[in-house]
Write a structure and sequence with these properties.
By secondary structure, the chain is mostly helical. The chain has helices at 17-34, 52-68, 72-92, 121-135, and strands at 4-7, 10-13, 47-49. It has a three-stranded mixed sheet, covered by helices on one side.
Length: 138
């Protein structure tokens, strides 16, 4: 069993049902966390339409938030979802770039679980995106 994610009636991703359910549950969590709609419609008859312009804003919101976090747990929890979203965004044809590390990490600092400085963080995320692209059936 599988489900289809579609743009203008064309399938862009066809994951197994359980993977799709988990992914879409994460989408809904991140919509609330970011305060942004994702562009993913409801799953109906194993099909989910993606509004590309809304999805693009969601992707950029995720990237912005990810780039500003210095919390090790938030980073660990969000990196897999972000990589999946970026792989899908690139498949759709969106121009998304993983930003380099900021000169300073302002904003969402959490001293109790500080993410160590890591200049390779963007490259690791990019490598994960590329690996996921190869694993995502249409």
């Amino acid at each position: 069993m599988s489900q289809y994610y579609e743009v203008d009636g064309e399938s862009v991703w066809n994951p197994a049902t359980r993977a799709s359910e988990l992914f879409l549950a994460h989408v809904r969590v991140y919509e609330g966390w970011l305060g942004l709609p994702s562009g993913f419609g409801p799953m109906c008859n194993d099909e989910c339409a993606i509004d590309v312009s809304v999805f693009e804003a969601f992707v950029h919101g995720l990237l912005e938030r990810h780039g500003r976090t210095a919390h090790a747990i938030v980073d660990a929890l969000s990196e897999g979802f972000l990589a999946t979203v970026l792989a899908l965004a690139e498949r759709i044809g969106l121009d998304v770039r993983v930003p380099g590390p900021p000169p300073t990490l302002d904003g969402f600092m959490a001293v109790q679980a500080l993410l160590p400085a890591d200049p390779d963080r963007p490259a690791r995320l990019r490598a994960r995106v590329l690996a996921l692209q190869r694993a995502m059936p249409r």
